[in-house]
């Protein structure tokens, strides 16, 4: 059984370390393998393996999705947080000079904070409130106002520009062929993509940008691939 879990998580031993973020609270400290094995034994489960959910997404898109023709891929998931995965020849890269520690970009500095604050849903909500004084509940609401609201258009232009500013050096360092974007915010790519691509072109970043082809199935395929 392959599992894709967000962090923090002990991926070697299968223990959730997530708390204080309004998800998975009740399994904090739980040995998931030990708990599930008796329940799944009759289904033929013999071994459990775990992987970060964004890493699993990256693997899935490389194995059968938007990046199946690429050799070196960086995947970013844009949603409640910013997940990342680095893949070379269909194998995860989580260490070495080409990638940040553990292959995670969410904690890298950007602007006055970190990447997770700048490009997540809460980052978009905060930006919109700064521009208008109005608090919305999600990025989808901001996107829905794009055609009629100059503030929403300005927000997504800046979002795309700054995402390219952050991602460009990461892609160059990894010598990536393709950047794959996933997560709910990636569905708004037609709104921020033009600004991102303009900034890449201005900075000489020659990387193909693609949105997820497999969506929610990508992480499942990536988790299953742990046994290939």
List the helices and strands and how they pair.
Layout: E1 2-5, E2 9-10, E3 15-16, H1 32-40, E4 49-52, H2 53-64, E5 72-78, E6 82-88, E7 91-92, E8 109-110, E9 113-114, H3 115-119, H4 121-132, H5 139-144, H6 150-174, E10 178-182, H7 189-203, E11 208-211, H8 217-224
Parallel strand pairs: 1-4, 5-10, 10-11
Antiparallel strand pairs: 2-3, 5-6, 6-7, 8-9
Helix pairs in contact: 2-8, 4-6, 6-7
Please give a structural write-up:
By secondary structure, this protein is α/β, with parallel strands linked by helices. It has helices spanning 32-40, 53-64, 115-119, 121-132, 139-144, 150-174, 189-203, 217-224, and strands at residues 2-5, 9-10, 15-16, 49-52, 72-78, 82-88, 91-92, 109-110, 113-114, 178-182, 208-211. Helix 4 runs antiparallel to helix 6 (150-174) and helix 6 packs across helix 7 (189-203). It is globular. The mean pLDDT is 95.
User: What overall geometry do the principal axes of the alpha carbons give?
Assistant: globular
**How is the main sheet built?**
5 strands, mixed
Structural class by sheet pairing and helices: alpha/beta
Mean pLDDT: 95
| Proportion of beta-strand residues | 15-25%
Number of strands: 11
- Helix-residue proportion: 40-55%
Distance N terminus to C terminus?
12 Å
The string of secondary-structure elements, in order, is: EEEHEHEEEEEHHHHEHEH
Q: Poorly predicted ranges (pLDDT <50, ≥5 residues)?
A: none
Features:
single chain; 228 residues; alpha/beta; two-stranded parallel sheet; 8 helices
């Amino acid at each position: 059984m392959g599992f894709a879990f967000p962090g923090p998580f002990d991926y070697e031993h299968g223990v959730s370390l997530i708390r204080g973020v309004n998800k998975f609270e009740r399994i904090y400290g739980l040995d998931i393998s030990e708990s599930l094995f008796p329940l799944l034994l009759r289904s033929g489960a013999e071994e459990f393996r775990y992987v970060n959910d964004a890493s699993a997404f990256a693997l899935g898109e490389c194995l059968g999705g938007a990046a199946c023709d690429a050799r070196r891929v960086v995947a970013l998931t844009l949603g409640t947080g910013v997940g990342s995965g680095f893949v070379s020849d269909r194998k995860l890269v989580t260490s070495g000079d080409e990638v940040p520690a553990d292959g995670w970009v969410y904690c890298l500095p950007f602007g006055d904070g970190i990447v997770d604050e700048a490009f997540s849903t809460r980052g978009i909500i905060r930006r919109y409130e700064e521009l208008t004084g109005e608090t919305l509940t999600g990025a989808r609401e901001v996107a829905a106002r794009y055609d009629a609201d100059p503030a929403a258009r300005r927000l997504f232009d800046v979002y795309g520009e700054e995402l390219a500013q952050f991602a460009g050096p990461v892609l160059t360092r990894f010598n990536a062929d393709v950047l794959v974007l996933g997560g709910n915010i990636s569905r708004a790519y037609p709104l921020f993509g033009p600004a991102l691509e303009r900034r890449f072109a201005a900075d000489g970043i020659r990387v193909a940008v693609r949105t997820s082809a497999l969506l929610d199935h990508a992480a499942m395929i990536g988790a299953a691939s742990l046994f290939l």
